[in-house]
Design a protein that fits this description.
single chain; 167 residues; alpha/beta; Hypothetical Protein Ychn, Chain: A; 2 domains; 5 helices
Length: 167
C-alpha cells in the first residue's frame, strides 16, 4: 500500500481516545486492515478508549447517542439527537448496532484484538490514563503488549513511512 509511488506506508500508529462502539471499531477495523496489508501496526488506547482493552468492559461498549447527528435508525432514517435522552435509547441503539455488526460477521472487541495481535499488530495502553482511572496491568486484555508513556509511544511510532492516526 502506498500514498505515492515512491512513498510507501511502512508503519501505522492509531490512537483511540474514545470508548463508544463506533470509535473503538474505527480503530480496530483500520488496525486490522493495516495488519492484513503487511503494515507494521501499533494501537494506543488512552482515556476512554481504554474501555476497549479492559477485560471487564471490552465486550460491553455502547453507542454514543447524545450529540451524534449522524446516528441512523433501521431503514437509514436519521435519529434526532433529542431522542438520545429517552431512557433506554442508548441500550437499544447499542443492541441494534451490535446486531447489525453480527449480521456482517464483525467480531466482538476481544476477538478483533486477537486477530490484530495474531497478525503481528501491537496493542498498548496509555500510562497516564491508566493512572487517572486507577487501572492496573492485570485489568487489561492479554493482548496488550505494554503500558506506555506518550513519549514511549512516539518512540515506537517513529521512522520513515510512519503515520499517526487519531480516531
Amino acid at each position: 500500500m502506498t500514498t505515492e509511488k515512491n512513498n510507501p506506508i511502512k508503519k501505522v500508529n492509531i490512537i483511540c481516545a474514545k470508548g463508544a462502539i463506533e470509535d473503538v471499531y474505527a480503530t480496530l477495523v483500520m488496525g486490522n486492515g493495516a495488519v492484513m496489508e503487511g503494515i507494521e501496526t501499533n494501537l494506543f488506547f488512552t482515556f476512554f478508549g481504554l474501555d476497549a482493552i479492559v477485560k471487564t468492559r471490552m465486550d460491553k461498549l455502547h453507542t454514543g447517542v447524545i450529540g451524534n447527528p449522524a446516528l441512523r435508525l433501521p431503514g437509514g432514517l436519521r435519529m434526532p439527537t433529542w431522542m438520545g435522552v429517552i431512557p433506554g435509547m442508548e441500550a437499544f441503539t447499542s443492541w441494534m448496532m451490535k446486531s447489525q455488526m453480527a449480521q456482517l460477521d464483525i467480531p466482538p472487541v476481544s476477538e478483533f484484538l486477537d486477530l490484530i495481535t495474531a497478525g503481528g499488530g501491537n496493542i498498548y495502553a496509555c500510562k497516564l490514563a491508566m493512572d487517572m482511572f486507577k487501572f492496573k496491568p492485570e485489568d487489561l486484555s492479554e493482548h496488550v503488549s505494554g503500558v506506555l508513556t506518550i513519549g514511549e509511544f512516539y518512540e515506537k511510532a517513529g521512522g520513515e513511512g510512519s503515520q499517526i492516526i487519531f480516531t
